[in-house]
Specification:
There is one protein chain. With about 260 residues, the chain is mainly β. The protein folds into 2 domains: about 1-105 and about 245-255, Immunoglobulin-like; about 115-240, no CATH class. It is about 15% helix and about 40% strand. It is built from 4 helices and 16 strands. It has helices at about 1-15, 130-135, 145-155, 225-230, and strands at about 20, 20-30, 35-40, 50-60, 80-85, 95-105, 115-120, 140-145, 160, 165, 175-180, 185-190, 205-210, 215-220, 235-240, 245-255. The strands form 5 sheets. It has a 4-stranded antiparallel sheet with strand order 1-2-3-5. A 4-stranded antiparallel sheet has the order 8-11-14-13, with no helix packed on it. It has a 3-stranded antiparallel sheet with strand order 4-6-16, with no helix packed on it. The two termini are about 35 Å apart.
């Protein structure tokens, strides 16, 4: 009888921390914030299997909402996804977390995976999104940016991250892109030869054009990349759509916070 009760307790405990294939990996204090980490069970760790939060709400054991510290971008990732919250005055022993995870599997069949070709073959300062996609959502934009356009749009931008607060030199970047998303379509540029396609830069600057709202990202891929190497960068594109996304709910209670 005791063994049956023990087995039932183990099964109940497992169900609390793993629902619909989403695992609450860990929760812990880091400096002045609490970090929550989630992962998807049995998901391949590659660029064609991505996850991010659709929604997430975290509370303490009394139901008080934790305050997002806004230091983590909610973007698609291959492995675990993170949420960070301001540490409450009273140290927490456990947290609750509820929400929905989006599981994105880009594919040609679902019109969410596109091979654009090498950078030298692709026209700059033009919308490279497939016409079939634009017919359903005309506000989307993705394109490579020329140095001339970057200088014109951000002519007054000062890179305060630099030691002397200098004007940014766009000539030093290996790849420059511009994109405009919407709520239903997240656009993800992919460079297959670098780090399996995602997070392919060691030095990145992201700027927003205040006039158009377009997001510009400037990547430095290698310490010294030649013009020939830049031209031969292969470029692919993921465009999120309903056919390629599965939404998975999760609801975890009293998950222990490591001190």
């Amino acid at each position: 009888m005791n063994k049956l009760l023990l087995l039932a307790g183990i099964i109940l405990s497992m169900s609390l921390y793993s629902q619909q294939k989403i695992n609450f990996e860990r929760a812990g204090y880091y400096f002045d914030f609490i970090e929550l980490s989630f992962e998807m069970e049995d998901k391949p760790n590659d660029k064609f299997h991505l996850i991010k939060f659709d929604t997430i709400t975290a509370t303490d054991n009394k139901g008080n909402l934790l305050i997002d510290n806004h230091n983590v971008f909610n973007i698609y990732r291959r492995a675990n996804i993170l949420a960070r919250y301001e540490a409450p005055k009273k140290q927490l022993k456990s947290v609750n977390a509820k929400g929905v995870v989006k599981y994105f599997q880009p594919s040609r069949e679902n019109n969410s995976y596109f091979i654009l070709g090498k950078v030298k073959e692709v026209k700059k300062d033009a919308n490279l999104i497939d016409k079939n996609v634009l017919a359903k959502s005309s506000g989307l934009y993705f394109g490579l940016v020329s140095v001339e356009s970057a200088n014109k749009i951000f002519k007054d931008f000062i890179n305060y991250k630099a030691s002397k607060g200098e004007k940014i030199d766009f000539n030093v970047y290996d790849l420059m892109i511009a994109k405009t998303n919407n709520k239903e379509h997240d656009i993800i540029p992919v460079v297959p030869t670098i780090d399996d396609g995602l997070d392919f830069s060691y030095n990145t600057i992201t700027l927003k054009d205040p006039k158009t709202g377009t997001i510009y990202t400037f990547y430095k891929i290698k310490q010294s990349m030649t013009a020939e190497e830049r031209g031969n960068i292969p470029l692919e594109l993921f465009i999120e759509n309903e056919e390629s996304v599965q939404k998975i709910p999760f609801d975890f209670k009293n998950f222990q916070v490591k001190q």
